[in-house]
């Protein structure tokens, strides 16, 4: 209980305009580590952007131990909070990829899949190991999931060459946003097959 009070006070200090106070609080919370995780995740729902940004930095610094609770909470909290949690997972990077890939295949929760795809898109090239799952996600029933999957693949550039056939199919997607992201991804991947598809698209 005493640790909870200490963590709560330190999180309050993150909102201080005095950088010395907020930075000291940040360092102490990183040092506390795992015991601070639940309250830091709650802080991601704060209305004050600086608190959210600093809580994200701290969770990223704590790293892998924060992943299980972050992914659990991402599936049950309000949308704005879930998006902030996804951002924190993306900042943790490669260790978070397996749980995000698993979330991407959740058949029951469309929003959860969207949050996972969005988090992977924020990782950029660090999420290369998720390419097969992102290719699969291009056929997801949700427009948002397909769109974020295509956008995530665009960040991989040439490493996502295996996605080109699926992205070419996505040029005919019923969603204009998915079509646009698929075309952008083909442009960044830049294989001869991708470039030919874009030439044919421009001439259609």
Give the N-to-C terminal Cα separation.
Answer: 66 Å
CATH topology of the domain at 1-92: Leucine-rich Repeat Variant
Order of helices and strands: HHHHHHHHHHHHH
Gyration radius, rounded: 19 Å
- CATH architecture grouping of the domain at 1-92: Alpha Horseshoe
Number of helices: 13
Structural class by helix and strand composition: mainly alpha
Shape: elongated
CATH superfamily of the domain at 1-92: Leucine-rich Repeat Variant
Largest sheet: none
Helix-residue proportion: over 70%
| Count of strand segments | 0
Unreliable spans are none
CATH class of the domain at 1-92: Mainly Alpha
Task: Provide mean pLDDT, rounded.
Answer: 95
Proportion in β-strands: under 5%
Report on this structure:
The chain is an all-alpha fold. The protein has a domain at 1-92: Leucine-rich Repeat Variant (Alpha Horseshoe), CATH 1.25.10. Helices cover 70% and strands 0% of the residues. The chain contains 13 helices and no strands. It has helices at 2-13, 19-32, 37-43, 49-62, 67-74, 79-92, 97-104, 110-123, 131-137, 143-154, 164-170, 176-189, 192-203. The protein starts with a helix and ends with a helix. The model has no long low-confidence stretch (mean pLDDT 95).
Quick take:
This protein is mainly α. The chain contains 13 helices and no strands.
């Amino acid at each position: 209980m005493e640790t909870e009070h200490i963590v709560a006070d330190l999180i309050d200090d993150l909102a201080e305009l005095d950088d010395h106070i907020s930075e000291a609080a940040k360092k102490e919370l990183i040092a506390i580590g795992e015991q601070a995780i639940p309250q830091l995740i709650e802080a991601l729902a704060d209305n004050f952007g600086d608190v959210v940004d600093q809580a994200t930095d701290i969770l990223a610094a704590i790293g892998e131990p924060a992943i299980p609770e972050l992914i659990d909470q991402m599936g049950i909290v309000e949308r704005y909070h879930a998006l902030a949690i996804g951002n924190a997972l993306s900042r943790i990077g490669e260790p978070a990829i397996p749980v995000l890939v698993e979330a991407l295949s959740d058949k029951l929760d469309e929003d959860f899949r969207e949050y996972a795809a969005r988090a992977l898109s924020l990782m950029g090239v660090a999420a290369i190991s998720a390419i097969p799952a992102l290719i699969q996600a291009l056929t997801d029933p949700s427009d948002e999931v397909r769109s974020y999957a295509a956008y995530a693949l665009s960040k991989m550039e040439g490493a996502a060459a295996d996605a080109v056939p699926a992205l070419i199919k996505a040029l005919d997607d019923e969603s204009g946003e998915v079509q646009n992201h698929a075309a952008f991804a083909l442009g960044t991947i830049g294989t001869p097959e991708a470039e030919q598809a874009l030439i044919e698209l421009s001439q259609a």
